[in-house]
What does this fold into?
Amino acid sequence: MKYSRSLRCGSLTARSWIVNNVEDSLVTHVAINGASMHTHTLPAVESAISAALAAIASPGSFFTGAERIAFAEHARAARGLGEVTSSLPPILAEAVARVAADAKSSRLAHVEAWEADGREVLAYIELVSVVAQITGIDSYRFALGHELEPLPAPVPGGPVPIVDADAAKMNAWVPTVGVALAPTALTALPNEKAAKKTLASAWYIPDNVIHKYGEEPGLELSRPQMELVAARTSWLNECFF
Amino acid sequence: MLRESAKAQNQPVNIVALTKPPLDALLPLGNELIAFVDAISLVDFDELPVARERLLAAGGPGAVTRAAAVCADFECTNRVVDAIGVPVNKKFYDIGDELGVTVPDHLR
It folds into this structure.
């Protein structure tokens, strides 16, 4: 499997036309190949992305760091954002590509085929988590015209299963702790849940006000504007969340 | 949540604009935000710089960064819920009808 499309950003030119300090963020805009790269940064997001990439490169509950980095690489390629240099067993490669580029086509039959291949259903959750996280990170960089981060070198070591003993199959295709909802989707694997939550807390509305609809979290967009972005994204992904 | 937050803030909103972008969502920067999200989610290399500049001009740098962040969060979360088969809450069925979309059987 080879994908040839790559991000068209890079080759920073010397032109810089806005420099402005806004509270805890630095704002600059520089031309890249004739288009702008947006460099207004959110420190909390940068910190969360660094932590997420480090976690992706580390051994997980079922996969090594090298395997998790391979998932990230294949996920990028499936979206036309990179090339594949590593190999994965077909069922893993197919799952990564599906989740990265066509998650709406996911079905129970895919999970059943995974288990029929002799794999733990909990390992499927780990794969989904890694692919979803790198997809979000890459979308953020792509949106702002940034280069994608080079994937970090994998941390040596074998996987160490860290599983919530209370996880059980409820209303989803995989075990969850309690009823499966968006916030509980990864609860069977506490480390994956935590990693995703770190990103979500930096990107979106903080947990302490998420359901206080009349309360503004004091971010750069109003809450209804953020919800518009969220809803449109879900619509384009044909996701009902 | 869009409807709930707009209602709580007495902010008019037309949620049908979510599925029919020529319609006005009635929110400040609504059209610019939708165009930016479309370019990100559809990985549209040509439209993205244009949409980003439009949003930047209308809303400033913070609006661009936060919109990218929220979109990224949902690019992530959408994949999780779809890939592990989290069913759609029945209370959202009506909104689906309003937007002209039907919840697929495998998520009911």
Notes: Chain B touches chain A through 71 residues (CB under 8 Å). Residues 2-102 of chain B form one domain.
